[in-house]
Amino acid sequence: TLQGFLDRHRAEHVRRLEEYRALATGTPRRALDPNVAAVVDFGIAYEEAFLAWIDGVAASPRGRRQQPAV
């Protein structure tokens, strides 16, 4: 079902976002390789965008319920 898809994927992307945020806050930026820092920044932006999309689908008339924001 649509709701099952949203629930499964939302949980996975919340987990990934938490991992990226942990990397971003757990290591001083100056200690990160610039390429790694860019990947971490992209990962955070991507996961936030994906979660916003899922939340929008869930809140639409076709969605079943609204998901909490991260």
The arrangement of helices and strands along the chain is: HH
User: How many helical elements?
Assistant: 2
* Rg calc: 14 Å
Alpha carbon gap, first and last residue:
23 Å
Mean pLDDT: 86
Uncertain segments are none
How would you describe the shape?
elongated
What percentage of residues falls in helices of 4 or more residues? over 70%
Write up this protein.
The longest helix has 26 residues, at 34-59. The chain has two helices and no strands. With 70 residues, the protein is mainly alpha-helical. Helix 1 runs antiparallel to helix 2. It is elongated, with a radius of gyration of 14 Å. Helix content is 73%, strand content 0%.
Q: What keyword list fits this structure?
A:
mainly alpha, elongated, 2 helices, 73% helix, 70 residues
Helix-strand blueprint:
Blueprint: H1 2-26, H2 34-59
Helix pairs in contact: 1-2
Précis, in short:
The chain is mainly α. The protein has 2 helices and no strands. The mean pLDDT is 86.
